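Quick sanity check, Alanine racemase:
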Amino acid sequence: MPRPIAATIHMGALRHNLQRMREAAHGRTLWAVVKANAYGHGLLRAARAFEEADGLALIDLCDAQKVREYGWKKRILLLEGFFDETDIPLLEKFDIETIVHNRHMIELLKTNAPYKSLKVHIKINSGMNRLGFLPKEEEHIRKELCAIDGVEIMGVVTHFANAEPSYDQGKPATVSLQLQRMAQMGDKPSQLCMANSAATLWQKDVQGEAVRAGVALYGASPDANYTSEDLDIQPAMTLSANVLAIQNVPAGEAIGYGSRFVTKRDSRIAVVACGYADGYPRSTPDGTPTYVEGKIAPIAGAISMDMLTIDVTDIPEAQLGSEVELWGAHIPVNEVAKRCGTIGYELMCAIALRVPLVEDEQ
């Protein structure tokens, strides 16, 4: 029998979240971001769930080819662009749109011209300071790309560093500051795409003809100060594992590596078939909630490679074989992430290959 652990992907939740983001987009083109194996949910599975999106946005050319060969006929966008000139013919062959974010890419496009139809988006650095040209360069870059035979400019893209409403507006790189910088462009470009999940949900002053929905599609709030319920989105992944054993431990005994957790009373400690090699963070502190038999059971002791331990002293129903939710509908992934000093994105993307992905229609 397989090891009793799984990440269940809820197809109904993915479809619901897409519709919710469609409503928030207010008629704008909706790109569904499926990079990082669709945030750990499975690339082709997400392509099925997001069939009503206007396009898929991802990172790897091989993934773009995969969804094309799978049957996706709508638009595809490479969010980091192409990486080598050998990629360029494949962009045309598979009708894949690409970000252009530096001069080296422009020179490669010139060298390999002409094209039948090569679709590009100009990436603007408005304050994230990762990829892109400065807003004041956009007009010149546009003219330069238009002069390349067969290149078609599809739009202009930027990305917000801090679109969450809880971000302190006195700090640098606010949405308003980035919008001011975008206004430095000469003529307002058509097909402007600026809004990510957070901006689509909360930043009503962000204009443009397109939005990119990412983490919200998977049911996690882009701002940990707001719940999925607040946003009417549904968690699309449940990480669960079964109880392997139960130890009756007297008061004053230590649990696990490093002996960081010491029982204050006679306790029932359940051993669960999930560890950091499955993607559950080793940094998870004592007290982090799990959900078993309809009740909250706290983590008790350091996370091991293949197992973790929870305190079920007050849950007599918890027995050998009981299913334990590590995150999902009852335990928000953002709650676990916050306890670990990270974000829900990282936890979902970090699910290990050895964890089976199964799906249901919920």
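Posting the structure with no commentary besides this: The longest helix spans residues 11-25.
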